[in-house]
Amino acid sequence: MAVQHAAARSGERAQHFFKCFLCLLLHVSVSDRCSLQEPQAVQQCQMVLLDCLLHLFAKNHAEDDLFFARVVDVLVRMRSEAEAQNNAEEQFIVEWRDKVDFPPILFEMKS
After folding, report:
1. Which residues, at least 6 apart from 25, have a Cβ–Cβ distance to it below 8 Å?
2. Where are the domains of the chain?
């Protein structure tokens, strides 16, 4: 009995990880902030990820009609927070550029 319970918890954790991973992939693969050589290929990948996510939501959260909307809301918030973080980092670099000897890799990451 304990082994079955542990296996069920392990399966739940794996499923939760997979959902989180898909959400992060969708978040990372948002392509409107860069120029792409093959935008259609990226869009196809995004649609596959979205289909997987919708399938998981339909299977595991069928009773919650707003679950997908909540996930999208979280992704939008994450994106806004990431943008605010990037702006703060850029402002820090501009203000301290003459006072601190930043490593070159920092500028490579920001370019």
Report:
1. 49
2. 2-110
Query: How many CA atoms are closer than 13 Å to the CA of 1, on its beta-carbon side?
Result: 0
Query: Half-sphere exposure (CA, 13 Å, Cβ side) for 98?
Result: 1
Please give the Cα distance from 50 to 56 (Å, whole number).
10
Interatomic CA distance for residues 3 and 76, integer angstroms: 39
| Cut 0.70: pTM above it | no
φ, ψ of residue 100 to 5 degrees: the values are: -125, 140
Query: Would you place residue 3 in the very low, low, confident or very high pLDDT band (cuts 50, 70, 90)?
Result: very low
Determine the Cα–Cα distance for residues 72 and 54; give it in Å rounded to an integer. Answer: 12
